[in-house]
Design a protein that fits this description.
By secondary structure, the protein is α+β, with helices and mostly antiparallel strands. 36% of the residues lie in helices and 44% in strands. Helix 2 crosses helix 3.
Length: 108
């Protein structure tokens, strides 16, 4: 299976009050991608020394020529609280679809 693309291909950050590490950005992508596929409204993200809730905003956003479904994360970090608003890019949506197909194939 192909390697996962870097996070900056998968999400586009619209607003953030905290610096995003690659690990945090990928965790946000994973939760948002699952929420987008399922249509659920909320999910959780948990990492060492950080936890938070990701909310599916149920609408699309645009940043220049980049468009996609929007999400917002409220995070509790060792350094304090933070908020991140981001969208899934076209590449992020495609990567999520591929992953869902692979997961379904492995279950069968």
């Amino acid at each position: 299976m192909a390697e996962t693309p870097p996070y900056w291909y998968l999400i586009s950050v619209l607003f953030s009050t905290v610096p995003l590490s690659p690990d945090l950005a990928m965790s946000l992508y994973e939760v948002a991608s699952a929420l987008h596929r399922s249509g659920e409204g909320h999910g959780e993200v948990v990492q060492e020394k950080m936890e938070g809730k990701v909310r599916n905003l149920q609408r699309s956003f645009a940043l220049g020529a980049i468009t996609g479904p929007g999400f917002e994360a409220d995070l509790e970090m060792e350094s304090g609280r933070g908020k991140v608003r981001f969208l899934l890019t076209r590449e992020g949506l495609e990567a999520g679809k591929r992953r869902a197909r692979v997961d379904a194939a492995l279950r069968n």
